[in-house]
Amino acid sequence: PPAEPPSQAPGQQEQHLHLMMQLLRPQDAIRLAVRLESARPRRVRYLLVVRPEEEGAEAETALVGVDFAHERAARCTLGMVLPLWSDTQVFLDGDG
């Protein structure tokens, strides 16, 4: 049978998105957010694709890693910022 998704309280994902938006500049927007599996059982991790909302800002796209200490944490921290240039190649490898 397929693995069951991690338990989340209703609205928890929206709360996480709100907290992650507070880390970004006002002109930035999250284009994609993916919850990752973590090696530590309680830690919650996300990988974001972020870029400014203004016209022609594709050149400023970045991958951003965000960490929450646990599911109900009231704050999050940046774990990684990787700017994506026109010649950047990103390879994600692993089980998750």
TrEMBL record:
Entry's Gene Ontology molecular function annotations: actin binding; phosphatase activity
Slingshot N-terminal domain boundaries: 16-96
Domain of life where this protein originates: Eukaryota
Gene Ontology BP term (one): negative regulation of actin filament polymerization
The name this protein goes by in its record: SSH3 phosphatase
Name of encoding gene: Ssh3
